[in-house]
Structure formats: structure tokens, C-alpha cells
Amino acid sequence: MKNIYGCRLEDLEEFFLSISSRKFHALQLFSWLYDKRITSFSEITDMKKDDLEKLEQSFSLERLKIVDVQEDKDVLKYLFELFDGEHIEAVLMKHDYGNSICISSQVGCNMGCRFCESGRRKKVRNLEAYEMVLQLLMIEAMLGERISHVVVMGIGEPFDNYDELIRFLEIINHPKGLAIGARHITVSTCGIVPKILEFSDFPLQINLAISLHAPNNELRNQLMPINKAYPLEQLIPAVQTYVEKTNRRVTFEYILLKDFNDSVSCAEELSHLLKNINCYVNLIPYNETNNFEFKRTNTVQIMRFYDILKKNRMNVTIRKEFGGKISAACGQLRSKKEEL
Ligand code: SAH
């Protein structure tokens, strides 16, 4: 049986037509699911008994299991259990501009970035769209507040799960679905070039972030195996194409790693690399973990790096640090359970 939270409006329209009913019931159903937030089909009052029965036979409304919630100031980390017993995490951040949620897209990750905690467990499987939708829906319900921003930056490489990602984005963006504005949604990729190009034809105005982390191939090859498949001379033009086609500014994420990619010459090289692209650079203070050799660049050096980019007229910001205490920081989304 299919989980209903993985259905787009069009899928439900097709369903109602397939049972010789009327298409408009799909919109009603969306409203029951996402406005009224029903937990059982029996709560639906405006549908024929026959249709309801068929709905019940074809779809489940089953939700994920919450196994743990940890809180640290303005951050909450949720551990979910999936129907096959796997675990995933999502993080809620309370900003002054609203609540933002960081969603996982896979169980484990195959990208193998050297600094990243989530990749220590290889990919077990892709998440299905409903498993991504439910992270959002369930956290909103527990919080009792609206979530305004979504970032797909949890465990997994979203572009390695492209079709389900797109389905998820369409469901949460739909005005009668969760109605998250496309401009409030960000997808982050380590740089899978063919998917960046494909995404440039996707009609929704969703933000794209690229995990760059190095200004040249020599350093990037040492950090991110994906750079060997798609080196900078492919990645940068692909991003340029994306910007031209969509007219949207991209974000480059750059983790500052002490004595590795934080020198003055790296800052100059980065400015040069990105000088013709309409972009933001988001400098990320590294969240140190026990398992890796990298250290966090200190604040003075972070400011030095920032100043050089500014001087070179880049749009640059420094990411606010969140959730260190509960291992909810970037790349640390692995449950303690799995570390045993
Ligand atoms: N696979 C996608 C999305 C998940 S990672 C991607 O690579 O973009 C989300 C962001 O967190 C990436 O920019 C990633 O490089 C960064 N990140 C991973 N580990 C980190 C750490 N320990 N400290 C700071 N940022 C980290």
C-alpha cells in the first residue's frame, strides 16, 4: 500500500479518475491532509462512502515513529524510525525570520566527503518522497508552529536521489499542500553536474547551494571524491548555466578548515574562481568532530578570509553556528545509536 504523503496533487487526481470518481476530490483530499491534518480517512466528511473505501484500500496515512528529540536553545533534533527500522534525523532551527528545518534525503551517504560525519555510514537506500514530507509535517505538528523554511542539507546527497527529491519539492511547495514558498526552499549538492543541469530546467524557483569547500581541484580532490568525477572545470560552467537559465543566484558553501583551505591565497583564488558568477558565498565555521583530522579555523582568520572576499566585491556571509551540543551541526547527523 502506498503512503499518501508521497502523492502529488496530480497523482491523486489520477487516482480519483481511475476509480471513476471526480478529479476535484484530489484538491479536497489535499486540504484534509495538509490543512486539517487528518490522521484517519474516516475524518473526511465530503466524499462518497464508495470513494472513501477505495481510498482506504489504496493508501496509508501512516506516520513515522519519533524515537528521540533533543533540544539545545534554539535547535531541536528529531530522530525518526522508518518502517524498515532504519533511522533518519532532521533538525529544526528557530531563526528570527522563522522556523527552518533541515531534512535528510537518504539513509547514509555515498559521497565520502572527508570532513563529514554523515558519510561515515554508506548509503543504505534513498528516502522516498513521503519520508521527506513526513519529517516536515510531523515536526510542524510537534512544534505547534509553522515551518517557513526548508533546507535539504541533512544526511544524504539529494541529487543522488533526484526523482524523489523533485516529488518532495512539488508536494511541499504546492499552495494546497504544505505551501512552503519555493524561495524558502534550498537544496544543497556536493556537485553532481548532470543533475545541476537537469535542475536548471525545473520550473520552481528553488534555491540551489553548492558545497564547494576548496578553490582549486588539488585541494577539492583531497576533500571530496565527487570532484574526481566532476572537477571544477565542469562544475563551474554547469553552475553558470544554471544561473543563466534560472536567473537565480546560487550559494557556494565553503567550510573553513584550519591550515587547509583558509589562507589568504585561497581567499584570492576563490574570489577569482567565482568572479563571473552571480552568487553568494556562505563561509561555514567547521564543526569539529572526534573522527577527523580537521580543525576549525579561528574567528580572527575567518574574518580575514571574509574581508578578502568582501574587498573582491563578493556577496559573502558567515553561517551562524547551531546545535553543537546535540550533534545537530552540519555533517553530524548520525544518531548515537548507530555509533555503537
Ligand atoms: N550532500 C549535500 C547536502 C548535505 S551536507 C551537500 O554536500 O551539500 C550539508 C552541508 O554541510 C554541506 O555543505 C557539507 O559539506 C556541510 N558539512 C558537512 N560536515 C560538516 C562539518 N563537520 N562542519 C561544517 N559543515 C559541514
Summarize this structure briefly.
With 340 residues, this protein is an alpha/beta fold. It is 34% helix and 20% strand.
Looking at this protein, list some descriptive labels.
340 residues, alpha/beta, DNA polymerase, domain 1, TIM Barrel, 2 domains, 10-stranded mixed beta sheet, two-stranded parallel sheet, 34% helix, 20% strand, binds S-adenosyl-L-homocysteine
Reported for the largest beta sheet, the result is: 10 strands, mixed
What is the helix content?
A: 25-40%
Q: For the record, what is the CATH homologous superfamily label of the largest domain?
A: Aldolase class I
Order of adjacent strands in the largest pleated sheet: 3-4-5-6-9-10-11-12-13-14
CATH class of the largest domain: Alpha Beta
Identify the overall geometry: elongated
Q: If classified by CATH, what would the architecture of the largest domain be?
A: Alpha-Beta Barrel
Number of strands: 14
Distance between the ends: 34 Å
In the CATH scheme, what's the topology name of the largest domain? TIM Barrel
